[in-house]
């Protein structure tokens, strides 16, 4: 795999923004006028629609099962240079070879390193997407088997990961030069050394870079509201939130709300719908103000009892039957109907977190 | 080892594995089942496996049974009681002679009552130095011998209504409760809604042995640890309210070292109250939620929350009830804390 021609590399490394617009400049006109990136536009969309999608028909059931039952560690990825969805077989072979070579060199130290071989498979997760602007989601799986194993010995799935872009900002996507593919959200599950190897290979091959994606307070609050919003359709069973307070020793507060009560509170803070009656209840758009009012309601009920201000702490985890999300960047999407809503939100987070 | 009972072997193996090497010698020395020669013959630098083999040989020599190994386990557990979760219980409604029950009577009565309730049971009772009576119970049933691998431990402070239990199943609970109630001459026993991993902490909390200082006036300037003076003007301005908060925090939770409690759970079933939200406030039904506070030392975290302003002072009774009432499980309704569970022995 060749690295891009020198002139382009030099251009990019000098951080010349003219050839590729920054994501943030696409978010607001004001930032285009100024010389500095738009700091005020550096936030998530203030309103979003939630639609439950029955994607079980559209997506390969095995892939869906994998996505739904696993807890993923998230990272953001900068756009990939000269990534081709048509070259997946070649990438599978290349990554296999790369991992095997690295393991044999002893760089990634693992007891069974010398005795196992790795089989990598790249595949496209078709049907997971909303717009035509989004690049197709790519799934990477690594199976391992002992070198001297018999034919019947099954290969074990030891690592899986995916790159996706769901509802990426169209302006930004269109602003990218032709040879760049934007799949900003990366999720991985498996041994840390394999994750590093996969990332290294991607970085070498597509001249991109990875970074940790923390799920910030606003994003966690969005998830709390979005999931609660789905309660009528699919029971959330409970809404659980974990805060950490900066006292000595640190205090962890787990606040678990009865699902019906959570939904009633959520419903009571919705701005009356201005949309026509025909609009499905769940397809109504949700505003950040509603999310804020919801969280404030929860925190205020808490304060009335304990006289403790939760906003003095940090919301570190939100979970329900529909999934869980942690500040550390770990996420689980337990219900396939809401995968796209969650991935949309996380794609946005990834795009915002990107350094360029 | 063929003649050695398998249970003895298993129990001894597990015990040696569990006791840290540095404590093995002292524990074995306290055990009166080995001769001086035997004790001296043990090489404590050997591996745990080797030590186990040595001890098994000695036990066979002395013809020791599982009851003797249970004794050894008890010696270790009494010195190191942090083996899991302890739950506090309180005896209720003492009979006239409850306060005069002394050790011998309690031992006899407890063994007799429990053996009556359950056919196969192995009971060991030992009085410890701090007035605590320790009971180790290995439970069997009509068909099987007592299981020494899953014993229940009970600690009761004679002359107080307090009992602490560890490793008790729901099936065993009513039997133990009945035996305790009858032998202590009370009429009922109830869950004290206090649990934690450190026996000494929950004991101190419940029996209020730890120092609770109620300062009425603090000498100024306030001496805080790790005090970083960032801005003298701000410090001066804030000194008054900081002193106030610190005082109220100590009044609520105590001063100095606090018992190590790990968590407190509140089950809230109160109406939603927020004047900015009319819809929710008008509802009659309660807003149901459960709040759990967790920390390596919960009381210290709460005290610091109050003194740092994260929790508003005066401290809400919900939080100060933890040290005040010695409880860490609460059901809160609009009519005040709910009734705690109560168990009365069945009438025979």
Automatic annotation (TrEMBL), chain A:
**Recorded superkingdom:** Eukaryota
Could you tell me which species this protein originates from? Haplochromis burtoni (Burton's mouthbrooder)
> Is the Magnesium keyword given for this protein?
no
**Pfam families xrefs:** CENP-L
Asked if the Swiss-Prot or TrEMBL record annotates the protein with the keyword Cytoplasm, the reply is: no
UniProt KW keywords: Centromere, Chromosome, Nucleus
The record, for InterPro entries, names: CENP-L
* Intracellular or extracellular location(s): Chromosome, Centromere; Nucleus
Q: Which family does it belong to?
A: Belongs to the CENP-L/IML3 family.
Q: What is this protein called?
A: Centromere protein L
UniProt GO cellular component terms: chromosome, centromeric region; nucleus
UniProtKB/TrEMBL annotation, chain B:
Write the protein's name.
Centromere protein N
Source organism (scientific name):
Haplochromis burtoni (Burton's mouthbrooder)
Compartments, record wording = Chromosome, Centromere; Nucleus
According to its UniProt record, where is this protein mainly located?
nucleus
* Transmembrane annotation, as ranges: none
Q: Known InterPro entries for this protein? A: CENP-NAC/CAD_complex, Chl4/mis15/CENP-N
Q: Which domain of life is it from?
A: Eukaryota
Task: For this entry, list what GO says about its biological process.
Answer: CENP-A containing chromatin assembly; chromosome segregation
Q: Which GO terms describe its cellular component?
A: chromosome, centromeric region; nucleoplasm
**What family does this belong to?**
Belongs to the CENP-N/CHL4 family.
- Keywords, alphabetical: Centromere, Chromosome, Nucleus
Q: Matching Pfam families, A to Z?
A: CENP-N (PF05238)
């Amino acid at each position: 795999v060749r690295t891009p021609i020198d002139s382009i590399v030099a251009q990019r490394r000098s951080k010349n923004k003219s050839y590729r617009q920054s994501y943030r400049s696409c978010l607001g006109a004001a930032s285009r006028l100024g010389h500095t990136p738009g700091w005020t536009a550096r936030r998530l969309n203030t309103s979003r629609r939630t639609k439950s999608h029955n994607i079980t028909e559209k997506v390969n059931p095995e892939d869906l099962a994998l996505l739904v039952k696993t807890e993923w560690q998230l990272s953001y990825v900068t756009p990939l240079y000269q990534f081709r969805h048509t070259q997946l077989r070649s990438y599978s072979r290349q990554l296999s070879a790369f991992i095997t070579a690295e393991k044999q060199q002893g760089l990634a130290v693992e007891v069974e390193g010398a005795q196992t071989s790795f089989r990598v498979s790249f595949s496209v997760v078709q049907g997971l997407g909303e717009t035509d602007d989004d690049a197709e989601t790519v799934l990477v799986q690594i199976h391992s088997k002992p070198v001297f194993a018999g034919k019947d010995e099954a290969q074990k799935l030891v690592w899986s990961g995916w790159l996706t872009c769901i509802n990426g900002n169209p302006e930004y996507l269109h602003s990218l030069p032709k040879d760049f593919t934007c799949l900003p959200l990366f999720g991985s599950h498996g041994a840390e050394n394999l994750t590093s190897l996969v990332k290294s290979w991607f970085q070498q091959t597509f001249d991109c870079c990875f970074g940790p994606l923390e799920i910030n307070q606003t994003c966690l609050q969005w998830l709390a509201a979005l999931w609660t919003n789905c309660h009528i359709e699919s029971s959330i069973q409970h809404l659980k939130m974990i805060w950490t307070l900066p006292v000595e020793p640190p205090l962890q507060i787990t606040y678990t709300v009865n699902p019906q009560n959570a939904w009633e509170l959520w419903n009571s803070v919705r701005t009356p719908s201005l949309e026509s009656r025909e609009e499905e209840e769940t397809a109504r758009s949700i505003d950040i103000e509603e999310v804020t009012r919801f969280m404030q309601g929860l925190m205020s009920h808490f304060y009335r009892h304990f006289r403790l201000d939760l906003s003095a702490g940090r919301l570190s985890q939100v979970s329900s039957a529909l999934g869980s999300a942690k500040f550390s960047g770990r996420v689980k999407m337990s219900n396939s109907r809401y995968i796209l809503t969650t991935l949309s939100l996380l794609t946005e987070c990834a795009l915002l977190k990107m350094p360029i | 080892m063929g003649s050695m009972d398998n249970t003895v072997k298993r129990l001894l193996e597990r015990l040696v594995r569990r006791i840290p090497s540095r404590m093995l010698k002292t524990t074995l020395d306290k055990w009166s089942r080995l001769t001086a020669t035997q004790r001296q013959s043990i090489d404590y630098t050997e591996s745990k496996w080797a030590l186990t083999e040595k001890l098994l040989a000695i036990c066979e020599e002395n013809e020791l049974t599982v009851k003797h190994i249970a004794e050894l386990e008890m010696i270790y557990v009494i010195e190191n009681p942090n083996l899991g979760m302890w739950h506090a219980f309180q005896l209720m409604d003492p009979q006239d002679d409850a306060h005069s029950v002394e050790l011998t009577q309690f031992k006899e009565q407890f063994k007799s009552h429990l053996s009556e309730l359950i056919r196969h049971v192995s009971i060991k009772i030992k009085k410890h130095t701090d007035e605590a009576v320790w009971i180790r119970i290995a439970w069997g049933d009509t068909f099987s011998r007592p299981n020494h691998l899953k014993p229940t431990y009970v600690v009761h402070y004679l002359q107080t209504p307090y009992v602490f239990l560890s490793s008790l199943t729901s099936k065993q609970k009513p039997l133990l409760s009945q035996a305790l109630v009858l032998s202590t001459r009370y009429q009922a026993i109830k869950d004290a809604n206090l649990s934690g991993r450190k026996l000494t902490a929950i004991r101190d909390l419940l029996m209020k042995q730890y120092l609770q200082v109620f300062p009425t006036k603090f000498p100024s300037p306030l001496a805080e640890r790790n005090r970083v003076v960032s801005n003298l003007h701000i410090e001066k301005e804030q000194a008054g309210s900081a002193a106030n908060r610190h005082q109220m925090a100590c009044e609520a939770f105590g001063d100095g070292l606090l018992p190590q409690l790990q968590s407190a759970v509140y089950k809230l079933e109160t109406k939603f109250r927020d004047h900015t939200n009319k819809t929710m406030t008008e509802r009659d039904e309660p807003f149901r939620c459960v709040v759990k506070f967790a920390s390596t030392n919960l009381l210290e975290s709460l005290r610091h929350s109050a003194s740092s302003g994260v929790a508003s002072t005066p401290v809400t009774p919900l939080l100060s009830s933890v040290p005040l009432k010695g409880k860490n499980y609460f059901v809160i309704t609009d009519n005040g804390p709910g009734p705690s569970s109560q168990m009365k022995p069945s009438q025979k």
